[in-house]
Sequence to fold (748 residues):
Amino acid sequence: MYRYDEIDQRLVDERVAQFRDQTRRFLAGQLSEDDFRSLRLRNGLYIQRYAPMLRVAIPYGLLTSRQLRTLAYIARKWDRGYGHFSTRQNLQFNWPRLEDAPDILAELARVQMHAIQTSGNCVRNITTDHFAGIARDEIVDSFVWCELLRQWSTFHPEFSFLPRKFKIAVNGAEADRAAVFLHDIGLQAVRDTAGEVGFRVIVGGGMGRTPIIGHVMQEFLPWPHLLTYVEAVLRVYNRYGRRDNIHKARIKILVKALTPERFREEVEAEWASLKNGPSTLTEEEVRRVQGQFTRPAYAELRGDDAGYAAHLAAEPAFGAWAKRNVHPHKVPGYAAATLSLKKTGVPPGDATADQMDAVADLADRYSLGELRVSHEQNLILADVRQAGLHALWQEAKALGLATPNTGLLTNIIACPGGDFCSLANAKSIPVAQAIQERFDRLDYLHDIGELDLNISGCMNSCGHHHVGHIGILGVDKNGEEWYQISIGGNQGLTRAGAPAALGKVIGPSFAREQIPDVIEKLIGVYLDQRESEEERFVDVVWRTGIEPFKERVYGGHHQRHERRQRSLATA
Amino acid sequence: MAVIIKGMNVVSDPWQRLELSADGSLPPVPPSGDIIVPLAMWQRLREGLLVRPGRLGVWLDSNEEPAAIAKDLRLFGVVAVNFPKVTDGRGYSIAFLLRERYGWKGELRAFGDIWRDQLFFLAGCGFNSFALREGEDPREALAAFGDFSETYQGSVARPQPLFRRRHLSSPDGMEWS
Fold:
């Protein structure tokens, strides 16, 4: 865990005081709605459908048990007893009062937390691999680089009013668990032949209305130049990104308009005067930030725990959970465990205050007092002794956090949707529930195997539907809620030969009650077509294309439609 | 005379800022006094503006290139940058470029849709003079320069980022906090 030093703390405290004064001036009528909007947004405060929504930053998804208890306390005292973990590893409160926001921020600051730049047209929370620091395929500990970027981006004077929001992701492992090709800037750690650390810099990826896979701007950027290069990218974006149309204002549109080659030249020209300047990182600074992170005090264990193996063999239910929710660890005898926030009947990513307190206790007792939030909206205890996994499972089960579905179809990733969000065209939570109810048979679910299902309530795609193996998008047709389905998306190179990909829409959209049937048909095609259990749903989509899926879902109607199209085309 | 913030004091402003008319035509040149002219006016009336009595400044809109005045900077008594909307942040980069790339050391003024809540960032980018939008009390706004007591990044006035200053400020070059 990164521990604030005196300056980190002072800045967060000063931000609370500043926001308190801004809120006071707004409530006193000295700031207009518009004036206040530009100030509150960069502090994570939206005015939502029913109440303000406050988004709390969880930098790179890392939390201590103490911080989680504070979030629980806030949920009870100022909200309705729960919070929503988002796909950007943050936590959202859906029911605070504007008047209370300064007090909530002050409470957060007491445990080294804040809501700085969780919204607004500025550099947002830096996200990363939820297995950073423990992954067996680690290249670097990405937390350190995320923290360096967090400090660099916090209150950066030049980049406080960008054309649009700006999201940076860092991945420090072989497998891409941070979706670096789908961010404004993606940074993939790499080592050169001499073992020196650098970053592959990917710019202009993103989802939303215009999904685009990012472009590699640098294959190997030596780490000392990380901040100056990112600064050059942002300066080009700040100066030339479109500001006339909110839907065309992200950096991906600028990169596309200029062409990636021209954009790279612009950045290089800008970088020429920033490179080797004062923002060039030094070894001392990297070491200093590294030193501000507490390292888990691992026991020296011989290797895999015999008792754990025995429990696995004896109890199929435990085995099923371990198969999905326990992940390998680089330290012998340890494992990471996912606590699922995807129980059927509960909005994906929601956790009650009681659950937060209980998870904080579990983190203290089983995982050295820390936990992570994954972009799949689950909580992860990253440092569990294998010997403790069985007891942890039993406790998690009692808390409703042991649904053994990580990586499976019912581990649905979803935004809060039309139930809460004023931007949404359609609800996402009831759709998730209907699917979870349809696929509630565990052996069937395991048979279907790995499948990412993502739901977004609108084109802003907070549920990352473009990169779901199955993606569901809420659309509005004459005031009615409809859902468009795409297949074949992939969030990133999580296994060899399977790079980031955008899903393809299979055809006209569906009414909400049709969705479970449609999903079942898609799964049916997959089960018929797969050549082995190793071949996942998305692999089949890539091998066969979307036609067989289309055919099954739209059936005769689809064929008639195709025939008509063809005859029209030849006519 | 209007009041502005300059060098963290509230002072009256001797400059008169001219604007193009709605159809893009140039405004008449006042016979005397200190004037800040739009870029297009400078480019078209250059010689005439230089020989007239009174000091001369130029202002850039947020979509204009600071490179366009880079070679002429020594001729100006003030350079000003417009913020047509508070959310239009291009002026922050323009200020950085004028200061760091083109070496402008004189008065750099921000004007337009800005008020106390932007002052800290504006100052970090090198502005040292501020004409707040109408209705703002510049005296009250002065407190905003103290909103934060430290910055992670370097600024125009203090180019070293915090991480370099940390190492400098301890005798053995190691961090102190």
About this structure: Chain B has two domains: 3-146, 151-177. The domain at 3-146 of chain B is CATH 3.20.20.70 (TIM Barrel). Residues 78 and 107 of chain B are 5 Å apart (CA to CA). The radius of gyration of chain B is 18 Å.
